[in-house]
Amino acid sequence: MIKLKADYVVTMNKNYEILLNAEVLFDKKIKEIGYNLPGKSIYLGKNSVLMPALINTHTHLEFSANKTSLIYGDFITWLESVIDKREELFLSCKGDCYKKAIEEMKKSGICAFGEISSSGNDLKYLKHSPLKVVYFNEIIGTNPAVVDAMYQDFLNRLDESLSLENENFKPAVSIHSPYSVHPILMDKIIQIAKEKKLPIQAHFMESPAERSWLDKGEGPFKLFFEKHFKNAKPLIKPLEFIEKFKNTNTTFIHCVYANEKELEKISEIDAKIAHCPVSNRLLNVGKLDLEKVKNYKIDYSVATDGLSSNYSLNLFKEIRAALLIQTDLHPKYLAKDLLKAVTVNAAKELNLNNGSIEIGKDADLITFKLPESVNNLDIIPLQIILHTNEVNELYINGGKI
Ligand code: MCF
Ligand code: FE
Fold this sequence. Notes:
alpha/beta; binds ligand MCF; 15 helices; eight-stranded parallel sheet; 2 domains; binds fe (iii) ion; Urease, subunit C, domain 1; 38% helix; TIM Barrel
């Protein structure tokens, strides 16, 4: 049993309690939170913070070799560069490349991440990851001629990940997007997710190109599809797409161009949204309207996306970017929501038993120090986001990593 004492214990519980000079007692799970608990406590020092470890809901570590290969600034140009460089990037990301990516996440206090895997190449590097992994087997494919082969390949990858399932490695599924997957494939995969109770992720309404393609079959995507697939018709309407995920645990990634009806539908089926502000900025697609997301009472997480559309996997940097980009929201209240986004909300999306300091939760915790004391408790989340890049300690299932 370990007992930590910190100046600020940020619980992330339902009442957003921040306790001063409190103690947390844990082994693999959190046992007790309070004052004068039994046993010898380790005091974390002046201005110390103890809070739940962060959760990065959406990454693409397969692309971690990318530094300058992919072209930023326009979505379709970026997509073309992905198609061009994908194999090369995958081949050059081996053990050290995955290790570095995980190391960066670990230093920024991440205990768990959602990985989108399109190839299965990442499995052998991630199955023994020191961080918890929710492994989303991705399906892509619209061309009826290859749909069966794509499905078979998906099933093989899914089976392998299912055989590796344990307390720190959880299989899941991802339908790449409404423009890149055949509806028949969508139905098959959603059915599997329902049967096996797997979380789902899907990229949705990321770019203006996706909007005009799905609404009218027009825009830059028309040229893109004619060039690559010779078929130039969208296969599903956005609302129909969302509707398919009813009665699942689904997170829609991006949603920058989701309209009111779609947000309403997302809310109605109790799906979630993952906000990736740096990725959206680099692909020059604008920003998610978080105020609307809040008005529709949709829970959101914040994630880095992959190094395919980011320069870093540091989640403190990502929520700081969100804080600075989301200028319509008051920084003090936005900061509170952003900490929720990378802890409690993220845990729900990934079906994890962590993300808050409450009895019975997994002891996935981080410790770090603020530069000075903070008198107003209400401003602590903002100060944390402004002043934290790396953590001092990361505990996963009660063990120091
Ligand atoms: O989230 C970003 C941008 N939107 C869509 N896809 C990806 C992102 N980062 C990597 N991807 C992957 C995606 O999973 O790129 C491929 C897919 O495997 C694009 S489709 C050739
Ligand atoms: Fe992504």
